[in-house]
Amino acid sequence: MTLELMNKARPIRIVSRGERGLTLVELIVTVAILSILASAAVPIARFQVKRQNERYLRYNLWMMRDAIDHYKDAADKNAFQVKLDSQGYPPDLETLVTGVEIQTKKVKFLRHIPVDPMTGKAEWGLRSMQDDPKSDSYGGQGVFDVYSKSPGTALDGTKYSDW
User: Fold this and answer.
1) In the chain, what is the straight-line distance between the N-terminal and C-terminal CA atoms, in Å?
2) Would you say residue 77 lies in a domain?
3) C-alpha to C-alpha distance for 2 and 104, rounded to whole angstroms
4) pLDDT single digits (tens) 95-140
5) Which of 131, 123, 129, 161 is nearest to 144 (CA)?
6) Closest CA to 95 of 115, 118, 70, 132
7) Is 104 within a domain?
8) Is 130 inside any structural domain?
9) What is the rounded CA–CA span in Å between residue 2 and residue 80?
């Protein structure tokens, strides 16, 4: 094609000075719409963080309770000696980490005491068999159960300390 035919094939549009970009009104409307969408996303992100922390809390509680159960099972099989008043439960969470001597082998039930994601500390509430199920004081006879010391409420309306 020749240059003449190419120029004839394309329609030429003359742009006036007012049509070159966005007007101030269009720009304000666009920014307003984006800020509304962004403000709707913030609560969703906040709930996602809380939901993730609740998952970690449930997992950490499950892991420690499972370690307590394994310790109790080994004690019930007379694999090692326990205090009489402990009923075969560990004296503290640190015992699950340091382990016990079973037939010349050191058996550990936890790698480390996990951090409570709600408080940010590796401190947990403890209950023994002799304690009331809703008690927040530890009798010291052996760790039967663990719970979070967080006073907060979960997304489902329950208290973290009741989990």
Assistant:
1) 79
2) yes
3) 95
4) 999 999 888 899 999 999 999 999 999 999 999 888 777 777 787 7
5) 129
6) 70
7) yes
8) yes
9) 98
What is the pTM assigned to this prediction?
A: 0.71
The dihedrals phi and psi of 76, each to the nearest 5 degrees, come to -65, -25
For 74-102, b/e burial (b = at least 16 CB within 10 A) is: bbeeeeeebeeebbbbbeebebbeeebee
Which alpha helices (H) appear in the chain, and where do they start and end? 3-9, 24-76, 93-98
Number of independent structural domains in the chain: 1
Two tokens at 128?
């023994």
Which residues span the domain enclosing 96?
23-153
Query: Is there a domain that residue 10 lies in?
Result: no
Residue 11 phi/psi, 5-degree rounding, is -75, 140
The mean pLDDT of the chain is 85
